[in-house]
Amino acid sequence: MPRSRTRKRRHREIKRVPRSRATLPEYDRGAVPEGLVTWRQLRDLNLSPGDNRGPDGNRGPVAILRCAWCGYRPQYSCNHPTRGRLFRVDLAKPKRTPTLAQERALDRAMAARQTCPKCKRRYYFCLPLRRFGCCLECHDGTPADPTTYTAAPATHSLAA
User: Fold this and answer.
1) Could you tell me the pTM of the whole model?
2) What is the CB neighbour count within 10 angstroms for residue 86?
3) In the chain, what are the domain boundaries?
4) Which pLDDT tens digit goes with each residue over 7-17?
5) Alpha helix locations (H) across the chain?
């Protein structure tokens, strides 16, 4: 009987930086000044970060939104992955709209992932083509809901 291996647990090194030495200003949740928003809030406003620059002159966030855990230790800066990046709304630019050629290319790429190679139906979700090579109905006979796909294009051999 093989012996089970015991894994060595790697302890994550804790890097505690005093808040006074942090490179960007940090704000607790609920205490963010007017005009600073997160990436998702920018996206909801149909804006991109644009020309936001931090205090060091590099592009990127201008401030950090501290995570909920760091509210209990205000003397240290937040370095958790759950922290938020804050951008200025006045420097944000409108999102770029894709050209027709870009939209067509994206549609072709999605069609390749959503179309069954056997029955030629295009589903409204991506198919497990790596695992099965086709849709579930062609693979094992599981009936597909007719509202989840568009009909296969009609093929005929008529001259006109």
Assistant:
1) 0.58
2) 24
3) 19-94, 100-150
4) 676 665 666 66
5) 39-44, 100-114, 136-140
